[in-house]
Write a structure and sequence with these properties.
It is built from nine helices and no strands. It is an all-alpha fold.
């Protein structure tokens, strides 16, 4: 009879997020996640076939965190709303933002960032007013705004204030 699995998927995901946030992409391994759980790798492989599958589960969780503040809008997938979400995410989930968007491995790049951008691009493709050829420069503007709010300590911490400021800056960009 086999050993009981001591950890469920949620506990493993929490440990994976912890390892990712604290150590970045270079140290994001099944072995290090197991060490964070004070366990062997077996429970992780019981729930996830590979690190890639675990990253995919993380990206789903990150996407939910990312979209949470804009789900109140009927068309939350618009470029403007996603830009607001990006800025809010950079402030509310600072360590995770840093691990995803500001760190890379010289060997691997950042597979979590790559997968998240892919997922967000799929959402953005639902915005009929966004044209990839014409508007791709706007994506750099969104990245810049997220970095601005990530690095800004003088801005208000309230979501409403950040959202208002991002929308003002987006309006200025349109002019």
């Amino acid at each position: 009879m086999g050993r009981d699995v001591l950890f469920d998927k949620n506990q493993i995901l929490k440990a994976a997020f912890l390892v990712f946030k604290q150590n970045g992409v270079d140290k994001f391994t099944i072995r290090n996640i197991a060490a964070a759980l004070d366990s062997s790798t077996s429970p992780i492989y019981y729930h996830f076939k590979s690190l890639d599958e675990l990253e995919n589960a993380m990206v789903e969780e990150i996407q939910e965190l990312f979209l949470e503040p804009i789900r109140k809008y009927e068309e939350y997938y618009s470029y403007e709303n996603l830009t607001v979400a990006f800025a809010l995410f950079s402030r509310k989930h600072r360590k995770l933002f840093k691990a995803i968007f500001l760190t890379s491995s010289s060997k691997l790049g950042n597979p979590v960032r790559k997968k998240l951008y892919c997922a967000l691009n799929t959402i953005l493709s639902k915005d009929p007013t966004f044209n990839w050829e014409r508007d791709k420069g706007d994506l750099l503007f969104s990245d810049g705004l997220a970095l601005r709010f990530y690095n800004s300590y003088e801005e208000g911490h309230k979501e409403e204030e950040i959202e208002r400021k991002v929308r003002e800056l987006l309006d200025l960009r349109k002019r």
